[in-house]
Write a structure and sequence with these properties.
four-stranded mixed sheet; about 35% helix; alpha/beta; Arc Repressor Mutant, subunit A; 2 domains; two-stranded parallel sheet; Double Stranded RNA Binding Domain
């Protein structure tokens, strides 16, 4: 199968995208430099060749850029080539893809939607850790129990996950933020 790739600039750094004739097969979050992003992409997709994106892929790149600027981006029409991925993973990705920008779910909630036992949350986490198309399949929107971030296998790890959630304006818990609890007027100290 022929694979093509492109490196493109975003507000958080140079990202990569890989596609086949059937659709996008990979997205890479930025490394420290374009060269490092390119090297990681070429290590993971050894046979991919750098190419000019098709109109479909260019549209997906534009949406990734918008998402990373904090703007709404709807990937529901993005062509993805995930048919070779395990069925369980595809089921997890389908649920994950429906999580709206600014919202989050837990691994356990996804397991419950799949009608799996609570311990299946680990399997959900593993499937998300294998997600080859972050952002388009927004695995960063899935948290561990009690609003904890859980893991993140993309470049930058949990720090990148929290950065993406911040860009999207996600509220990680029902607890008020520091600024939501401030009084409108300072009370005198007694």
């Amino acid at each position: 199968m022929v694979q093509d790739f492109a490196i493109f600039e975003t507000t958080i750094g140079p990202c990569g995208i890989v596609w086949s004739e059937y659709g996008v097969i990979g997205v890479l979050l930025p490394e420290a430099s374009e060269g490092k992003t390119r090297a990681r992409l070429q290590k993971r997709y050894r046979d991919a060749r750098e190419s000019e994106p098709s109109a479909d892929v260019a549209g997906t790149i534009a949406k990734v850029r918008a998402l990373l600027r904090g703007e709404p981006a709807d990937f529901s029409d993005a062509k993805l080539d995930i048919k070779t991925l395990p069925e369980f993973n595809r089921s997890v990705y389908e649920i994950t893809s429906a999580i709206p920008r600014g919202s989050v779910m837990t691994y356990g909630e996804i397991a419950a939607r799949l009608r799996k036992e609570p311990q299946a949350a680990r399997d959900v986490g593993q499937a998300l850790g294998e997600n080859p198309i972050p952002l388009i399949i927004p695995c960063h929107r899935v948290l561990a129990a009690n609003g904890k971030p859980g893991g993140y296998s993309g470049a930058g790890g949990v720090k990148m996950k929290l950065k993406l959630l911040t860009i999207e304006g996600a509220k990680l818990s029902d607890e008020p933020s520091l600024f939501e609890t401030l009084p409108l007027e300072a009370k005198p100290y007694r």
